[in-house]
C-alpha cells in the first residue's frame, strides 16, 4: 500500500519503520504493551509511558493529510477526540491517549444508536473554528470543479454523466460560502473508538476548514450492507441523512448539496484511478439526495 501511495518514498519509509519505532520508544521513554495494529498507512503500537500510564505510539508517513492530524487534535484538546500527548513535526510521529482499538462504533449492533453517537461527536468537533493556514474546502471544491469536464469524457453511462454534472452544479452554487469550521473529513464508525475518559472518541482526522455539511458522507456509506438489507436503499439513505442533520443541526438543503459534493469527490477519485463509472454506492446516495437540492 505504501509503495502504491507514495512510490519509492513509501518503500523507504516501510524499510525504516523498525528503526523509527525504536527511536521514539527510546526518546519518549515508552515500553511496548501489546500487539500493534495498522490501518491504510499508519502503525499504532500500544505502549506504557515512564510513569506506567497507557498510551499509543502512532507512526505514519508525513504528507498533506497526516501533517494536519495533530493540528486538529491539539485544537480539539480531547473534546470529542483522542488526546494528543506528544508529537514530532519532523516525522509526524504522535503519542496518543490509549483507546480500545478492539471496540469501535462499527461493533454497536443498533445502527441508530451508533449513528446518533457519531452525529453527536460530529456536532462537537465541527463547532470549533478552523485555524488559519489549514487546507480549505473552497480550494478543494474549486479543484474538483476544474476536473469535471475531463472526467465527463471518461464516463460512458449517460446517467453517470447526468449525476456528475448535477453534483458539480450544486457545488458551484455552494462554493461562494464554503464555511470555516474544523472538519474531521473521515468520521465513519470505525474511526470512533471506545475510551475511558469519554465513552466514545474520534480518531484519525484529516482536518479541513469548511462547512460541517461536507462531513456527513463517511457515515452514510459506511456499514453499507445495513442500508442494502432494508430493501429500500433510497429511504434508508435519507433516514441516516435526516438523523445526522437533526442531531448536528444542519440545514437539509445545504447538507444535501455538500454531500453531493462528496459524491463528486469520490467519483472523481475513482475516475482518476481508471474506473469507467460511478460506484453503485455513491450513485445510490447521490440519487437519494439530489431531489433535496
Structure description:
- The chain is α+β, with helices and mostly antiparallel strands and 293 residues long.
- It is built from 11 helices and 11 strands.
- Strands 1, 2, 3, 4, 5 and 6 form a 6-stranded antiparallel sheet that branches. A 3-stranded antiparallel sheet has the order 7-9-10, covered by helices on one side. The protein has a two-stranded antiparallel sheet with strand order 8-11.
- It is globular, with a radius of gyration of 20 Å.
Described by its quaternary structure, the protein is single chain
Question: What is the element string, with H for helices and E for strands?
Answer: HHEEEEHEEEHHHEEEEHHHHH
The largest β sheet comes out as: 6 strands, antiparallel
Broad shape: globular
Q: Which features does this protein show?
A:
single chain; 293 residues; alpha+beta; six-stranded antiparallel β-sheet; three-stranded antiparallel β-sheet; 11 helices
What layout of secondary structure does this protein have?
Layout: H1 2-6, H2 8-27, E1 31-32, E2 37-38, E3 43-48, E4 54-59, H3 69-76, E5 84-88, E6 93-97, E7 100-104, H4 111-125, H5 137-152, H6 158-174, E8 181-183, E9 192-194, E10 200-202, E11 208-210, H7 217-221, H8 224-229, H9 233-248, H10 252-272, H11 280-289
Antiparallel strand pairs: 1-3, 2-3, 3-4, 4-6, 5-6, 7-9, 8-11, 9-10
Amino acid at each position: 500500500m505504501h509503495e502504491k501511495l507514495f512510490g519509492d518514498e513509501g518503500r523507504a519509509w516501510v524499510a525504516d519503520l523498525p528503526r523509527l519505532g525504536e527511536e521514539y520508544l527510546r526518546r519518549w521513554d515508552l515500553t511496548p504493551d501489546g500487539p500493534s495494529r495498522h490501518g491504510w498507512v499508519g502503525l499504532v503500537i500500544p505502549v506504557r509511558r515512564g510513569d506506567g500510564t497507557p498510551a499509543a505510539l502512532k507512526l505514519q508517513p508525513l504528507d498533506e493529510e497526516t501533517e494536519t492530524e495533530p493540528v486538529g487534535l491539539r485544537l480539539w484538546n480531547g473534546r470529542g477526540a483522542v488526546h494528543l500527548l506528544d508529537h514530532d513535526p519532523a516525522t509526524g510521529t504522535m503519542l496518543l491517549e490509549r483507546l480500545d482499538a478492539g471496540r469501535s462504533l462499527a461493533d454497536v449492533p443498533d445502527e441508530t444508536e451508533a449513528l446518533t453517537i457519531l452525529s453527536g461527536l460530529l456536532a462537537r468537533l465541527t463547532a470549533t473554528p478552523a485555524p488559519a493556514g489549514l487546507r480549505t474546502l473552497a480550494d478543494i471544491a474549486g479543484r474538483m470543479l476544474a476536473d469535471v469536464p475531463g472526467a465527463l469524457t471518461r464516463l460512458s453511462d449517460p446517467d453517470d454523466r447526468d449525476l456528475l454534472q448535477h453534483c458539480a452544479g450544486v457545488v458551484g452554487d455552494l462554493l461562494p460560502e464554503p464555511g470555516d469550521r474544523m472538519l474531521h473529513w473521515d468520521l465513519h464508525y470505525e474511526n470512533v473508538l471506545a475510551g475511558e475518559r469519554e465513552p466514545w472518541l474520534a480518531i484519525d482526522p484529516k482536518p479541513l476548514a469548511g462547512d460541517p455539511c461536507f462531513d456527513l458522507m463517511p457515515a452514510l456509506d459506511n456499514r453499507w450492507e445495513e442500508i442494502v438489507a432494508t430493501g429500500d436503499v433510497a429511504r434508508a439513505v435519507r433516514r441516516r441523512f435526516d438523523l445526522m442533520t437533526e442531531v448536528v443541526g444542519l440545514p437539509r438543503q445545504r447538507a444535501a448539496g455538500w454531500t453531493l459534493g462528496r459524491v463528486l469527490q469520490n467519483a472523481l477519485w475513482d475516475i482518476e484511478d481508471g474506473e469507467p463509472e460511478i460506484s453503485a454506492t455513491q450513485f445510490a446516495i447521490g440519487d437519494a439526495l439530489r431531489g433535496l437540492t
